[in-house]
Amino acid sequence: MNVVNLEAGFDSIEEYWSPKIAAELNGQHVKLARLKGEFEWHHHADADELFLVVEGRLVIELREEDDLRLEAGELVAIPAGVEHRPVADEEVQVLLFEPAGTENTGNVEESELSNEAAWL
Amino acid sequence: MNVVNLEAGFDSIEEYWSPKIAAELNGQHVKLARLKGEFEWHHHADADELFLVVEGRLVIELREEDDLRLEAGELVAIPAGVEHRPVADEEVQVLLFEPAGTENTGNVEESELSNEAAWL
Description:
The structure is a homodimer. Chain A is mainly beta. Chain A has one domain (about 5-110): Sandwich (Jelly Rolls). The first copy, chain A, is built from one helix and nine strands. In chain A, strands 2, 3, 4, 5, 6, 7, 8 and 9 form an eight-stranded mixed β-sheet that branches. Strand 1 of chain A pairs antiparallel with strand 7 of chain B, so a sheet runs across the interface.
């Protein structure tokens, strides 16, 4: 049982858009990521995905609905299949909760932003 | 897709030890709870449980290991079957991740602290 300090976790992450695993439970992963700039449009076929903004302001663009705008201390769950694009004008620190094995770019496999999450 | 503000969520919770559901994803619930005092010793037979301290300091006592001490911005996952007792000398605001339907007192069913989580 490993206590994870979020600030230390974020500080240890060097790359943007490269989530690291902080905890595993019930087949799900808690991941930390630093985001900056525009990500790719993508969806996760079978995985709902939760974003909790720890620091900064995150916009999640959606195809069919108004953009979601999250401040620090706000969370939202994006259901499986919903195409979305995270955009961070300035750096955002975010905690993600999603099934273990979920790829960051979802259905978009041939992206230079794709990577498999390692542990913190 | 509902953006949940943690501060507003905690402010809307009147009772201690009475988690409220903030989001559902992949069969899991994200819950918010205000804690103060000593909870009951309990375990969850089939459910790992994550505690993320948003405000305050939480001690999680364990039977076989040293107490866990979590400050704001720290998280830990308690594996299924591990008996534990949360203790909050002063008020603690905590975010929980656990399977939908997990009862707060786990195996201890006849407790006055037991309750079924409602949505925020």
